[in-house]
Design goal:
This protein has 85 residues and is an alpha/beta fold. The protein is 41% helix and 13% strand. One of its GO terms (cellular component) is cytosol.
Length: 85
């Protein structure tokens, strides 16, 4: 959990008008840990704003990190996997 001014901003964030947001990102974690940190932070922010996740359905990489953060926070997670003909 964040401390100081960031914590105040997080608590006072207005409720979102969105109930679900769709996120598609890499199935690889990438070479920079900053990408991984950003994916987890995005998931945590969705939880803080009571937003559910619709995503690319993968359990690995950046998509996996976002979905795990949202699911761990108690929000709904819907994975979309395209079915090839």
């Amino acid at each position: 959990m964040k401390e100081g001014a960031e914590a105040v901003v997080q608590v006072m964030a207005p409720p979102s008008r969105f109930r679900r947001i769709c996120v598609f990102c890499g199935s690889s974690k990438g070479n920079k840990t900053s990408y991984q940190d950003a994916a987890v932070e995005l998931g945590e922010e969705l939880v803080a704003r009571n937003i559910d996740l619709v995503y690319g359905g993968g359990s690995v990489g950046l998509m996996g990190l976002v979905s795990q953060a949202v699911y761990s926070g108690g929000r709904h997670v819907i994975g979309y996997v395209n079915k090839r003909p």
